[in-house]
Amino acid sequence: MDFSPTPERQMVAESLSRLLAEHLDAERRRAIAYVAPWHDPTLWAHLCELGVPALLVPAEQGGFGGAGFDITTAFQPLGAALCTEPMLGHAMALAALVALDAPVSEDMVSGNSRYVLAIGEPDVPYGLDDLETTANRAGDGWQITGRKSVVAGAQSATHVLVAARHGDGGIGLFEVGADAIDLTAYGMVDGGGAAELFFDATAAHAISLEADAALTTALTAGLLALSAEAVGIAERLVDLTQDYLRTRQQFGRPIAKFQALQHRAVEMSLHLEQLRSITVRAAASFGTPDGPRHAAMAKLLVGRRGRLIAEEAIQLHGGIAVTWEAEVAHLAKRLVMIDAQLGDADWQSEMLAEALA
Amino acid sequence: MDIRYSDDELAFRTEIKTGLAEIVWPELAAKVRAGSSLEKPEHDRFHAALNARGWLAGHWPTEHGGLGWDPVQRHIFDEELYAADAPRVVPFGLNMLAPVLMAFGSPEQQAYHLPRILSGEDWWCQGYSEPGAGSDLASLRTRAVQEGDSYIVNGQKTWTTLAQHANKIFCLVRTGTEGKPQEGISFLLMDMQAPGVTRRPIRTLDGGFEVNEVFFDNVRVPVADRVGAENAGWTIAKYLLNHERTNISLVGESTHALEQLKAQARQTRRRGQPLIKNPHFAARVIEIEADLEAHRITNLRMLSDAQRKGAPGPEVSMLKITGTRIRQAINDLARRGLGPAAAPFPSEALSGNAALAAPEHANAAARYFNNRKISIYGGSNEIQANILAKHVLDI
Ligand SMILES: Cc1cc2nc3c(=O)[nH]c(=O)nc-3n(C[C@H](O)[C@H](O)[C@H](O)COP(=O)(O)OP(=O)(O)OC[C@H]3O[C@@H](n4cnc5c(N)ncnc54)[C@H](O)[C@@H]3O)c2cc1C
Fold it and tell me: Residue B313's pLDDT is what?
């Protein structure tokens, strides 16, 4: 057994971390993450030059990766740097197309086109079963009607893949040019952008009329990516908190000397180990029948333990952590809000419970 | 045992409820529901309306112009404020400085300052914490050196809540370096407009502005504006902290917030039914509700104890810990109940959807993050636990 990453992945992770350190310091990150259009074309281009989108695509479709550990290799450093570039949506769109064995354009692999996968709706934020957006045949093509809600990265996408229910009751995958969509863009509390997408008999091109399984794979990839992102963030929160405990002086000593706080720091590190390990588990299972189950477990623990890590990091820093200037505040916000993407902890445990019966 | 409110207390509640319905105007209630911060004129107008009925200082003793409400009446008033979607009364002058002046101030200080607090002429802020003195308040370093009939003050305060609206600040300053750090502290009343005072806003993690840094550069303060004796500031500070802790249960606020949460969960649809029918979610709501019911009784038990003994004891630290936990759990569930719709910032962005943009649901995530502060300020929950271990458990 060997838990160390392959030299190739190790190298990609290091280059990515270096690139992000160079182009995304805390100040720059805040200028991008909280200001329209919540996306930096230059940074996106750098990520693409390094091959981040290609890392998410198997060789047969023109990439050089596509395995579970490729996803985590990309998203953990992106998380640690709190990068808000719309890579998640692009990764999920790629995963859906690969799963369908549908053509993946060179522009998509290179990142010249930015894709998002639009699934969640106002009353159906998680899962596929109850989706209400519909697709209807219109001549040779299709028309989409409905609304997709809080689609992360959609504000800067060039192409949108939409999950919609069609006449036969199945769920299909449809492509729409971003220009054709009535879209309301906004920023997020934890940085980055998203949009509401309003479809009203909007012309679309059908990629597949039986996309359930491919969408499940895309969601699994998304859960894995978010879990790796969470590990990257949680590691930094744990580190920053331990550093702060060692340096902050009150009552004439570093507050790390208070045993009550030592135990809290230890609890945080126990949670972090759980997150690291469940993400390794989920990455190893990606593409196997256990993939969705393990990804759901990862996201479940990320939701529960991630929130505890974030809250404890703030509490142990005291007042300084509730300021905009504090990096720990932005890390904590992102870690908490990850729970609300693609199914929160309660949702994941419901899904896992249904599979038990 | 009789845990019911007396007939007088019930009548008092009705009087307050009716009065607040007249006082709170619709735009104010809407802002409070949305968790938006208020402008100074809105605070002033609300305070003035309360003051016109004597309720602004209802808890002050009658000899100082109050109505002499006891702790239970004060608690009822607090509950009704939240139920009416009224803002919290800004506490620094009314609930913190005023009791200090009544206990330690000279007759001249009382006669000058108390009416100005009531009229809204003076907006006070609390200058205790410093960058190096948070939990360890006694290590504060802002210096006051006497020169003739003035002190010259140099140093810095931080986290000063709403200092942007304040024309006055009460400060703990160092006047002595002999003995224990607690022994060289004095309590000064200072003018925010005095030469040498500057303030700098601190932006909070949710993007808001409610705290500030305040800097003192050779600020001249008349010795007559010291409260109590020189180097007696720590006794005053401890007295004030006790007063600060009498309304820390957050029972009124949490009761109202829990009702809002339930309303939100009835409106939110998940998998074809209201979220409140989801057993996971319902179980969480119910657990908070049970904790809140217990906490409500703990609070009343401690209030009636304080009423008998005249002052609250160290056991009220329990109210702070349990009260902030419950309040934060409600914030957490309100955010989670909205799912991804909690994330847009500011949430007006979602105004296309009436259900998502209803004011009481707005800013759920921002409010959750902002309220992480309540277990940090006013003596962090860890410091409260230290107090309990030492003074209540005696271990
Ligand atoms: C929003 C906000 C508003 C505020 N408003 C005001 C105001 O108006 N006026 C004012 O004067 N102050 C104000 N404060 C300051 C507040 O009182 C302090 O933040 C608080 O006392 C904690 O101090 P600190 O932030 O320096 O944290 P620290 O004291 O540095 O504490 C850091 C961590 O160590 C823990 N800790 C410290 N000592 C011990 C110990 N002995 N045992 C165990 N754990 C310990 C703390 O609990 C915390 O978790 C405000 C703070 C905030 C966040």
Answer: 84
Question: What pTM does this model have?
Answer: 0.97
Topology at the third CATH level for domain B7-89: Butyryl-Coa Dehydrogenase, subunit A; domain 1 (1.10.540)
ipTM: 0.96
Contact (CB, 8 A) for A55 and A95: no
Across the interface, whether the CB atoms of B380 and A318 are under 8 A apart is answered yes
Convert the pLDDT of each residue in B52-94 to its tens digit: 999 999 999 999 999 999 888 998 999 999 999 999 999 999 9
B214 in Cβ contact with B197 (< 8 Å): yes
B80 is catalytic: no
CATH architecture of the domain with range B124-231? Beta Barrel (2.40)
Q: Quick one: which atom of ligand 1 is closest to the CA of B381? A: 47
8 A C-beta contact, residue B46 and residue B278: no
Which residues line the pocket of ligand 1, CB cutoff 6 A? A 248, 250-251, 255, 258, 260-261, 315-316, 318-319, 322; B 126-129, 134-135, 159-161, 211, 373, 376-377, 380, 382-383, 386
Task: Tokens for B52, please give them.
Answer: 């016109």
Chain B CB contacts of A311 below 8 Å: 372
> A307 pLDDT exceeds 50?
yes
Cβ within 8 Å, pair B280-A324? no
Residue B244 pLDDT grade (very low, low, confident, very high; cuts 50, 70, 90): low
Q: Which residues does chain A have within 8 Å of residue B375's beta carbon, measured at their own beta carbons?
A: 315
- Dist. CA A45–CA B281, nearest whole Å: 42
Mean pLDDT of chain A: 96
- What value does the CA radius of gyration of chain A take, rounded to a whole number of Å? 20
Q: Which CATH number fits domain A7-113: 1.10.10.970, 1.10.1740.10, 1.10.540.10, 3.90.1170.30?
A: 1.10.540.10
Cα–Cα distance measured from residue B123 to residue B115, given in angstroms and rounded to the nearest whole number: 12
